[in-house]
Specification:
Layout (H helix, E strand, L loop, with lengths): L4 E6 L5 H12 L3 E6 L9 E3 L3 E8 L7 H7 L2 E3 L2 E9 L7 H11 L2 E10 L15 H19 L29 E2 L8 H5 L5 E3 L4 E3 L9 H5 L5 E2 L3 H14 L6 E3 L1
Parallel strand pairs: 1-2, 1-4, 3-5, 4-6, 6-7
Antiparallel strand pairs: 7-12, 8-11, 9-10
Bound molecules: flavin mononucleotide (FMN).
């Protein structure tokens, strides 16, 4: 089966998922259309014809897909459309996130030719998997992408496709927000960059302070990544305590897992 172009659908608050999907895109032939859900969620149904490969790459939040992303993914409407499902996680575990992504795509008319969980720097605890994805990871990303296109080439119709399973369980792990929320420090210059990038509108800037609505905040870290004065951080005694334990438990290197 041939595809003319590729839809690259991703969410990336701190840049690692973006790095991985761009590496996938660099191996694929033809035109690529990028949909960065951080900047623009998909709010209306988006039909994708069978001659367009779709790559969805989403970071893992607490073992699941962030609900913010699911709200966009449900609008992708395939019609026997080939897809590649990728989750990116911070070296703890990806639990049910890959199964969740593959299932959403399959329920929406896509057939998933390959699925993978790649490892990247943990966006809440960047001391974990700090330099990842590294050159080995990116070589694997390219290899994975080639295998997906070879598999697609070997099919003459979607009916020939043999489904495969990925790691994960039904019912999915309960989706819980993480308690760590970024905030601005005393050195905040009230520039408002954080408020502009926040995908859920959780940040407001007054003349004297930058406020975060912790009920809305999804802890993605986009504000930390964008802050020009490095004032935005996860902070506080609980964060520091948890950080130490987390680094101790989850620093042992994990390798990407690929499914075809
Ligand atoms: C709210 C939140 C929850 C997370 N939960 C997990 C998790 O369950 N397992 C894991 O290994 N990493 C977890 N991470 C780390 C991210 O999956 C990882 O850092 C990913 O590379 C972030 O992608 P990005 O750089 O594109 O934003 C979490 C990060 C955030 C912000």
């Amino acid at each position: 089966m041939q595809f003319r172009e590729t839809e690259l659908v991703y969410f990336s608050a701190t840049g690692t998922t973006r790095k991985i999907i761009e590496t996938i895109g660099s191996v694929l032939p033809g035109r690529k259309n990028a949909h960065n859900l951080l900047l623009k969620p998909i709010k209306d149904d988006f039909p994708i014809t069978a001659d367009r490969l779709t790559v969805a790459a989403i970071p893992v939040y607490n073992g699941r897909l962030p609900d913010y992303c699911t709200q966009s993914l449900i609008h992708l409407k395939g019609n026997d459309t080939p897809a590649i499902a990728v989750v990116v996680y911070g070296n703890r575990e990806y639990d049910d996130a890959l199964l969740e992504l593959k299932t959403i795509l399959e329920k929406n008319g896509f057939f998933v030719v390959g699925a993978a969980a790649f490892v990247a720097r943990h966006s809440i605890f960047p001391q974990v998997a700090t330099d990842r994805p590294d050159t080995n990871d990116l070589a694997l990303v390219r290899d994975f992408t080639r295998k997906c296109t070879e598999k697609l080439d070997s099919l003459s119709a979607p009916e020939e496709f043999v489904p495969f399973e990925v790691k994960g369980n039904f019912p999915y792990k309960e989706a819980k927000p993480v308690p760590m929320k970024p905030s601005s420090g005393e050195d905040c210059n009230l520039c408002g960059t954080c408020a502009q990038i926040c995908p859920v509108g959780a940040i407001s800037v007054t003349e004297t302070e930058t406020r975060t609505d912790e009920g809305l905040c999804i802890s993605c870290g986009a504000c930390i990544n964008a802050c020009p004065s490095e004032s935005r951080q996860y902070r506080g005694a609980d964060y520091e305590k948890f950080k130490g334990k987390f680094i101790e438990r989850f620093s042992r290197r994990k390798e990407p897992e690929l499914f075809f």
